[in-house]
Design goal:
The chain is α+β, with helices and mostly antiparallel strands and 526 residues long. The chain is built from 18 helices and nine strands. Helix 11 crosses helix 13, helix 16 crosses helix 17 and helix 17 packs antiparallel against helix 18.
Length: 526
Amino acid sequence: MSSGSGKSDAEIELKLAVPADDLAKLAKAPRLAELVGRSRSARKRFVTTYFDTPDRRLAQAELALRVRRDGRRRIQTIKTAAAPEIAGLARAEWEREIAGDHPELDDAWLANIPDKAVRKLLAKPKVRGRLSPLFTTDFDRRIWRVRYGASDIELALDKGEIAAGKGTAPIAEVELELKAGDPNDLYSLAREIAGIVPAVVESRSKAERGYALLAKRRTDGVAAVRARPVALDAGASVADAFMRIGRTCFRHMRANESLVRGKPFVDGVHQLRVALRRLRSALAAFRDVLPEDERKRMSEELRWIAGACGQARDWDVFRTQLLKPLAEHLDDDPALAGVAAAAERMRKRAYAEVSATLASPRLTGALLDVEAWWEKGDWARGMGTWATLPAAEFAGATLKKLHRKVASLGAQLGDLEESELHELRIRCKKLRYAAEFFRGPFPRKTTEAYLGALADVQEHLGSLNDAVVAKALLAQLGKSAKDLPAAVLARADGIVTGWIAARVKSDLDELPAVWAEFERRKPFWK
């Protein structure tokens, strides 16, 4: 039985991962003493057990169910993932004090949870009747109550470990929780802390890290996180749309940034790059209603981060989509083998640059700055009357303009030079991202048909880009791979160039029919 009636709340927090040794330095830092002022720290030890069903139904629903031992008390908590409709740092949670170490999900308590989907899932016999402990977190927490800006913030230093099965992972992080005030003060305080010790934004909850550890997903087999549809309904305003698009893209970006920070892997780096491009595309889609200087500044910060990922992605494509099928087709030609070895060295160098970028103080500052700017919402003043108008109206005007740019260049398809075909691909990509952002309020069938035809055009134009990139990478190899004889490079260049030419010809031969199919599709916003 419960010893309390329970509590429903929205937790707004921001976490920073800090090297364990630096966490101790932070606790003694003069600047931290200035920040906390006369606030006295409290110390606690938390041992928390996380529960789920054998088939991980709670994890699939992005719920975390835990029982935390706080002295003699047992606190049961249910947390959800952040939703784009609420502040980007906020997660809904419901908690209650219980008598024992196993969750208590009785009907009376569940009835107080306002989220129908959560309530319904937890009430299922196949859920609450099959819950078992999966992993634990055991950490010491030192806590201060800080007055920062106009806000009351709880600053906590957590140090300990996560234990799942036979595996463990360290916990060393700073957790900032907004008790009252402006969420943007969390970002400002986080930037201050990142200026004292090395720190990166930790987007994964302790529960997410526990699930990853339990599944032994800390290798190249880890699953990257794909982009989710933007939750945009017919009643959303232009300002609502920009905020929700940003929050959805940030969630995509943060998830993959956390995954690849420790050990970059192919799909994770690709998805991180996609997320960054989607964020920049969102800025571009709203360019007519955003303050120009601020928009450009945010876009450039994102471009810098994406740059390191771009080099790694280019070498991945060169290796897997070009050299590998060529080697199989030509039965491991010695010239290709030499080029492949040199390309692998360049790929590893590019991945080292990704790791260096993700670990740099500039990255932490850039991500905090961009996300704080997006969340603060001062950009809404620059939107003028557009801010409160229906998003569907703005979407129609924006997509019409982007579609017209694609259609005007595509109308000359048979006469386009290589550079113009490349420009057409770029225009298709911008249109596709914007169409995916704004699709929510429009008919599903028409939208999917339009997007599918547009994706086909973009894919057929993609081989042209691969050709341009491959030529540039071969040139890099010629300059950097001093151990490769000129004759080997010349032969490999001839083979690769011929292979690319055949692929490009095939795609270009099919392109008119693919383009005609796109032209037949009715723009879904009309």
